[in-house]
Amino acid sequence: MGPVVEVRSLKYSYPDGTEALKGVDFRLEAGEGVALLGANGSGKTTFALHLNGLLSGSGAVRICGMEVTPASLAAIRRKVGMVFQDADSQLFMPTVIEDVGFGLLNQGLAPEEVCERAQIALEQVGMVGTGSRAPHHLSAGEKRRVALAGILALDPEILVLDEPTTFLDPPGQRALSDLLRNLPQAKILITHDMPFALATCSRAVFFHDGSVAAEGPVEEIAARFGWGFAAR
């Protein structure tokens, strides 16, 4: 079985001429958890946005054996679930259950199946009983879980989370780490939180100035680049 993500020589420049990616190579195996490390502006999020076609540069991006092209985008986006740094950008329906089921409704599923799958996803993230609540009344950690539930309801093979511990207190960070570790999907986590990366991922890829500077075990990569582990 091949990698679920395979990227070769990926390059991308923004319209203002900024060269954001300078020939990135990357692989992600089924069930693997990988942390993307590096300073702000090093290319991590730009890279991640290529994995479901939100950006398109030169080079090759293959998801579960499919090349990311305009013709394959619908299938690719069923494989790759993205949870953005700002959970509020993904929560816009009147109730939690409507938010979690929104993507399923767009796929044309019957309302009864949408409700059932949304409830299962909420159970996965520890948010049972919140379906009737308004998302804007949730805490930051609860919003993060609901946003993740909306992705899990779609049953993707790959999860991509951008700075998932932002606004979470230490108990919330630990709970999210435990949750992610127990999910079967392959995971890419963009993070500056080294304890979280160490607890959740087996491998780290360090971005610098639009290129992959190094990859290896999380602790080894963090030590090499002087990214310390703060005590929890």
Give a description of the structure.
The chain is an alpha/beta fold. It has one domain (5-224): P-loop containing nucleotide triphosphate hydrolases (Rossmann fold), CATH 3.40.50. The protein has 8 helices and 10 strands. The protein has helices spanning 44-48, 73-79, 96-106, 111-124, 140-152, 170-181, 194-200, 218-224; strands spanning 5-13, 19-28, 33-37, 58-63, 66-67, 80-83, 158-162, 186-190, 203-208, 211-216. Strands 6-7-8-3-9-10 form a 6-stranded mixed beta sheet. Strands 2-1-4-5 form a 4-stranded antiparallel beta sheet, with no helix packed on it. A hairpin with a 5-residue loop joins strand 1 (5-13) and strand 2. Helix 3 packs across helix 4, helix 3 packs parallel to helix 5 (140-152) and helix 4 (111-124) crosses helix 5 (140-152). The chain is globular. The protein starts with a strand and ends in an 8-residue tail after the last helix. The mean pLDDT is 91.
